[in-house]
Amino acid sequence: MFIFDVEGKEWGMKPMNCPGHCLLFGSTVRSWRDLPMRLADFGVLHRNELSGALTGLTRVRRFQQDDAHIYCREEQIEEEVLAALDFMKHVYDIFGMSYKLELSTRPAKALGEVAVWNRAEKALASAMDTFAGKGNWRENPGDGAFYGPKIDIKVSDSMDRVHQCATIQLDFQLPIRFDLKYKSDKVADAAAPDGGGADAPKAGFERPVMVHRAMLGSVERMFAVLCEHYGGKWPLWLSPRQVMVVPVHGDQFGYGEAIVGRLHGMGFYAEVDTSKATFQKKVRNAQVEQWNLQLIIGKAEMANGTVNIRTRDNKQLGEMKLDEFLDMVVKDRKEFK
């Protein structure tokens, strides 16, 4: 952590979202009816990494995580984990990345009761069977965190390189350390008013289970992974250079500006090349700069209200009415590479 002194008190810059979410959960009395309770946070985090460990965007000192924590009852674990896995699949299908699942189980120096660990691991395994099918994931014995078992999601990019981005982890310890509890719908055991353990809440209350969930992990690191995955050839929906309008002659500059205005109004990033370069040079520049689509407009296109479409790979899609083109890219923007 980055630690510094403020008027005689020690302060630290937030390195993770987990404690803050625990404070939010514990800020008022919770009921079993409130669960599952899901908290998400994109707040900025700081970690004082050693200078020798810093590497581009993959390891930095200031970053953000698409972090979420789910507080649930033990019997809700399987349902919540399955929902997180479905969310993960939705995200990585959009990016066109494959993944493999591993269940990391109780390590030798685990905290908490073995019976609770066994039930949690069984719930995770059942969720993975439902999600991926039996035999389509592997077990990684003893590699869980000390505070609970976890699902490791190994993502493969377009070059079959493996990255650890998404994560789903169970945590039994933070709820104890922050004394998190909720009013139970179960009848308290009079013979065990403390719930049957030094770490248990008082009678009438139960501890929630905490699920740590991230789809991208560090957003900066995920951006670096995507740069490598796409090799600089961003798909249209994600590209910072979507449409370049290339007029054949200066007489078509006004028509080009009108096209760009309509594209901007629809949420696309577009430019028109009004430079003094030759037409061939403009087309070449657009290809080198990896613009997904080039709209060639000449005298005929301006007269007909059309555009002549080329892709980044110089594939010619032909002439099309401007309105038809706009309808096509809005409908199929994920299909264009």
Commentary on this structure:
α2 crosses α3. The two termini are 41 Å apart. About 2% of the residues have low confidence. α3 links the parallel β7 and β8. The protein has 2 domains: 228 residues, BirA Bifunctional Protein, domain 2, CATH 3.30.930.10; 90 residues, 3-Layer(aba) Sandwich (Rossmann fold). The chain has 9 helices and 18 strands. By secondary structure, the protein is α+β, with helices and mostly antiparallel strands. The longest helix is centred in the first third of the chain and has 19 residues. The strands form 4 sheets. Strands 4, 5, 6, 7, 8, 9, 10 and 13 form an 8-stranded mixed β-sheet that branches.
How is the topology of this model organized?
Elements: E1 3-6, E2 9-12, H1 18-25, E3 30-31, E4 37-41, E5 44-46, E6 62-72, H2 77-95, E7 98-104, H3 114-132, E8 138-140, E9 150-156, E10 162-171, H4 174-177, E11 182-183, E12 205-206, E13 209-218, H5 219-230, E14 243-247, H6 253-265, E15 270-272, H7 279-288, E16 293-297, H8 299-304, E17 306-311, E18 316-321, H9 322-332
Parallel strand pairs: 3-11, 7-8, 14-15, 14-16
Antiparallel strand pairs: 1-2, 4-6, 5-6, 6-13, 7-9, 9-10, 10-13, 11-12, 16-17, 17-18
Helix pairs in contact: 2-3
Keywords: Aminoacyl-tRNA synthetase, ATP-binding, Ligase, Metal-binding, Nucleotide-binding, Protein biosynthesis, Zinc
InterPro entries: aa-tRNA-synt_IIb, aa-tRNA-synth_II, aa-tRNA-synth_II/BPL/LPL, Anticodon-bd, Anticodon-bd_dom_sf, Thr-tRNA-ligase_IIa, ThrRS_anticodon, ThrRS_core
Pfam family, one: tRNA-synt_2b
